[in-house]
Design goal:
With 65 residues, the chain is α+β, with helices and mostly antiparallel strands. The protein has three helices and three strands. Helix 1 crosses helix 3.
Length: 65
Amino acid sequence: MDLSKYEFDLILEEIKSVLGEKNTDTEELVRLIDYPEDRVIKVIRWLLDHNKILKDRDHKLSWNS
């Protein structure tokens, strides 16, 4: 399933907003984002691969500012 750039950017902004307020694990982050799980996971994976978000030893995600 491919994401449009528009949808990718919308999901990215929601992720950035959530992680700006608190660090959370992947499962909770997916639940908090109002898009289909597979699409949110695809964006999270891209953000991790490009070091935009970081995962700590407790598996909590944070925005890499």
